[in-house]
Design brief:
Layout: H1 10-24, H2 31-42, H3 50-57, H4 61-70, E1 82-87, H5 90-94, H6 97-108, E2 114-115, E3 121-126, E4 138-140, E5 143-145, H7 150-163
Parallel strand pairs: 1-3
Antiparallel strand pairs: 1-4, 2-3, 4-5
Helix pairs in contact: 1-2, 3-4
Length: 164
């Protein structure tokens, strides 16, 4: 599998987590803001930090893991330079996104849910981009695209890469 390695050393990740935890100490309902702050600073919420977060908030590791795994925007490793999200919800399924996903996996050489080893691209599933009338939908680097096909997505990726 082509998974991007962690960008930060464990010591750096722990230092960031300690800073975030200290800044949010005593805040009611701090778990989600803490997770967001850590991900904003590191690009991910490394699994090694979950025990530290749980201990600081007097939660079980299972509770913290449950929140991280429930919300699809939290990641265990940093994303690539470009992030292509392909909607897998019902409206997009009815318009052929399963076949499009398979075609993109083949053309990119990258399974859905993974990041290229060189860190250039993350290919992710998302479950509704709120543009159902224009299915299938994709989001590339935060920009929504409707009625997409493989050729259009590849052209968009090439355009983004040429800007970088």
């Amino acid at each position: 599998m082509a998974i991007l390695s962690q960008r930060f050393a464990p010591e750096q990740c722990q230092a960031v987590a300690r800073e975030v935890l200290a800044a949010r100490r005593g805040q009611p309902g701090a778990l989600l803001p803490i997770l967001h702050d850590i991900q904003d600073r590191l690009g991910a919420v490394p699994p090694d930090l979950l025990p530290m977060i749980a201990e600081e908030l007097c939660l079980s590791r299972a509770e913290v893991h449950g929140v991280v795994s429930f919300y699809h925007d939290f990641r265990a490793s940093p994303p690539g330079r470009h992030v292509l999200k392909l909607c897998q919800a019902e409206a997009c399924q009815s318009m052929g996104v399963k076949a499009l996903t398979a075609e993109m996996e083949q053309k990119l050489g990258l399974p859905l849910g993974e990041t290229l080893e060189d860190g250039s691209l993350s290919f992710e599933a998302v479950y509704c981009l709120g543009n159902c009338a224009c299915a299938p939908n994709a989001m590339l680097n935060g920009e929504l695209h409707g009625r997409v096909d493989a050729q259009e997505l590849l052209a968009l990726l090439a355009e983004q890469e040429s800007r970088a």
